[in-house]
Design a protein that fits this description.
By secondary structure, the protein is an all-beta fold. It has 2 domains: about 1-20 and about 200-270, no CATH class; about 30-200, Galactose-binding domain-like (Jelly Rolls, Sandwich). Helices cover about 0% and strands about 45% of the residues. The protein is built from 1 helix and 22 strands. The chain has one helix spanning about 150-155; strands at about 1-5, 10-20, 25, 30-35, 50, 60, 80, 90-95, 105-110, 125, 130-135, 145, 160-165, 175-180, 190, 195-200, 210-215, 215-220, 230-235, 240-245, 250-255, 265-270. The strands form 5 sheets. A 6-stranded antiparallel β-sheet has the order 3-4-16-9-13-11, with no helix packed on it. The protein has a 5-stranded antiparallel β-sheet with strand order 2-1-22-19-20, with no helix packed on it.
C-alpha cells in the first residue's frame, strides 16, 4: 500500500510513505443472488433477501427475469412493483453470506432487471448497516442515491450500484435499496439479481499525490493500483478507512474546516 498524508486543519501535505437467496453463482471473486428462486410469498422472499415495507404495499411475484450474463435460467422469476406506487423508503435488502469477512475487503455491487416496462427515472437510496458505501451515482443530487434501477442502466445487463468495504468484525456485507422517487403510469421496478464482485488490491501499487483541498474536496493525482482509500486519524495512530475510489485522478469529500476536530487524512493506493 502506498500512502500520502494530509493534515486537514492546516491544509498542509505532510509526506508520502510506502506501507507494507440461494447463492446462484459463487467463486472466490464473484457471488450472484436471486430475489425469487422459487418463493411464492410476497412478504417472505428467498434468503438472503428481505422486503422492506416502510408502510408500502407488497411487491408482486413475476415470471419475467433478466438475461444478463451469469443470471440463472432455473429461477422462477422476480419481484415487481409499480414504481410510482412504491412508498418512500420501501425496497429490499440482502446479506452476501458467501462474501469474505476479512476487514477492508472491497466488493463491487451491481443489479439487473428484466425487460418489462421498467421505469426510466427511478432513484433509490443505498445504505449498509455494517460496511462503508462508496461510488454512488448521486441521483437526484444526493450522494447516498443511485440511478442503477433505471431502465437504461440495468435492463438485461448489470448496472453498477456502489462499492462496499468490510469493516473489522463484520461477518458478511449487508446492503439495502430504498425507493426515493420516480416512476410514471404503469412503469415498473424489479427486484431480480444482485452481483457482488471482489475487487482485489494491486500487488504493485505506486504512491498518489495529494493536490490540495477545494472546498471539501480533497484532491489527489497519480499513483497506480486497483483502488484508492481515504484514511483518517487524530494523531497519526489508529488510522480508519473512510471511503474508497477506483480511479485516479480523483477526490474525496471531507468535512469543512472548523466543523470537526483537527484530523490527519491520508490517501492510499492499493
Amino acid at each position: 500500500m502506498k500512502t500520502e498524508w494530509f493534515l486537514h486543519s492546516f491544509r498542509i501535505p505532510l509526506l508520502a510513505l510506502s506501507l507494507a437467496a440461494a447463492i446462484i453463482s459463487s467463486s472466490a471473486e464473484e457471488v450472484i443472488y436471486c430475489a425469487r428462486m422459487h418463493s411464492t410469498s410476497t412478504s417472505i422472499w428467498d434468503p438472503p433477501f428481505w422486503w422492506i415495507s416502510a408502510g408500502g404495499s407488497a411487491y408482486s411475484t413475476a415470471t419475467v427475469k433478466s438475461t444478463a450474463a451469469g443470471t440463472p435460467t432455473g429461477r422462477d422469476g422476480s419481484y415487481v412493483h409499480t414504481a410510482s406506487s412504491l412508498s418512500p423508503g420501501e425496497g429490499f435488502g440482502l446479506v452476501c453470506t458467501a462474501c469474505s469477512a476479512a476487514p477492508d475487503s472491497v466488493y463491487q455491487v451491481e443489479v439487473t432487471q428484466p425487460s418489462s416496462n421498467v421505469a426510466t427515472d427511478t432513484i433509490f437510496g443505498v445504505c449498509s448497516t455494517n460496511c462503508a458505501v462508496g461510488g454512488l451515482s448521486g441521483g437526484a443530487g444526493s450522494a447516498t442515491n443511485t440511478t442503477a434501477f433505471q431502465a437504461a442502466n440495468s435492463v438485461n445487463k448489470w448496472g453498477f450500484v456502489c462499492w462496499l468495504t468490510n469493516t473489522a468484525g463484520v461477518p458478511n456485507p449487508e446492503i439495502e435499496f430504498h425507493y426515493v422517487s420516480g416512476g410514471t403510469a404503469s412503469l415498473r421496478h424489479f427486484a431480480d439479481c444482485v452481483r457482488f464482485t471482489l475487487v482485489p488490491a494491486s500487488s504493485v501499487p505506486s504512491p498518489v499525490q495529494i493536490g490540495g483541498l477545494a472546498g471539501t474536496a480533497l484532491q489527489y493525482t497519480g499513483g497506480s493500483g486497483t483502488r484508492f482509500v481515504l484514511l483518517r486519524c487524530a494523531s497519526l495512530f489508529d488510522w480508519q478507512r473512510v471511503a474508497t475510489n477506483f480511479v485516479t485522478p480523483g477526490s474525496f469529500s471531507i468535512p469543512a474546516v472548523g466543523t470537526e476536530p483537527a484530523a490527519f487524512y491520508a490517501v492510499a493506493s492499493e
